[in-house]
Amino acid sequence: MRIEIWSDVVCPWCYIGKRRLETALAGFEHADEVEIVWRSFQLDPGAPQEPVETVAESLGRKYGGGAEGGKQMIDRVEAVAAEEGMIWRHHESLRVGTMDAHRLLHLALHDGGSRLQGELKEALFSAYFTEARNIADHGELRRIAVGTGLDGDAVDRVLGSQEYADEVWADISQAQAYGASGVPFFVLDQKFGVSGAQPAETLRQVLDRAWAGRTPTVQVLAGAPEAQECGPDGCAV
């Protein structure tokens, strides 16, 4: 089974959704046959490459209340993250663009497959939410990517170009074609779509349904008693 997940590395509900999916998979008997592929989505395509404010300041400016108002909004999502075992420093997170991070995720998928891409995705989430690192800074991105096993020369090549930008935009277009208006957005075997950071129990139910849907059952109908067949012991003639 392939699970494609559209998300942004600065999306708090995407990180929470990742943890909840991991919880669901922990109790799923076919988990070792599941491949997870991360797809790109940009929540804030206008975010600057060079940070000028924190996420708390940005939220307070957008919705009112200033930095303190933004902090109160973050407090609520951090409380949910804590229920999933994550302690964040999201108050200090910077509002920055994520295009380069997404391009590196495509590099990881291309060079190391879904396993390496998953490791980089977790490292980027952790860097942003738990360490408040600037994930638009090329130096930080290089350290994170190389730390997960990506080749340094390949990382430098991608960051010094626009390589994989087309793949990022293709992911975003596909999300729009699916009708996804937000993230996380999960697609299982290109048949079942799930929107939002659903509870682990809900995701488990979707896993079970998707798995059942990929292995159709055959109803055996009784035939005439004189019908003959061959079995493991040979054919009766």
What can be said about this structure in brief?
It is built from eight helices and six strands, in the order E-H-E-H-H-H-H-H-H-E-E-H-E-E. With 237 residues, it is α+β, with helices and mostly antiparallel strands. The strands form two sheets. Strands 2-1-3-4 form a four-stranded mixed sheet, sandwiched between helices.
Class of secondary structure makeup = alpha+beta
Any idea of the CATH class?
Answer: Alpha Beta
Q: Which fold name fills CATH's third level, the topology?
A: Glutaredoxin
The beta-strand count equals 6
CATH architectural grouping: 3-Layer(aba) Sandwich
Give the helix tally: 8
What is the residue-mean pLDDT, rounded to a whole number?
92
Largest sheet: 4 strands, mixed
User: Order of strands side by side in the largest beta sheet?
Assistant: 2-1-3-4
Secondary-structure element sequence? Answer: EHEHHHHHHEEHEE
Number of domains: 1
Give an overview in words.
The strands form 2 sheets. This protein has a 4-stranded mixed sheet, with helices on both faces. It is globular. The protein is an alpha+beta fold and 237 residues long. It has helices at residues 12-26, 55-63, 66-83, 99-129, 138-147, 152-159, 165-178, 200-214; strands at residues 2-7, 35-40, 185-188, 192-195, 230-231, 234-235. The relative contact order is 0.17.
Layout of strands and helices, then pairs:
Layout: E1 2-7, H1 12-26, E2 35-40, H2 55-63, H3 66-83, H4 99-129, H5 138-147, H6 152-159, H7 165-178, E3 185-188, E4 192-195, H8 200-214, E5 230-231, E6 234-235
Parallel strand pairs: 1-2
Antiparallel strand pairs: 1-3, 3-4, 5-6
Helix pairs in contact: 1-3, 1-8, 2-3, 4-5, 4-6, 5-6
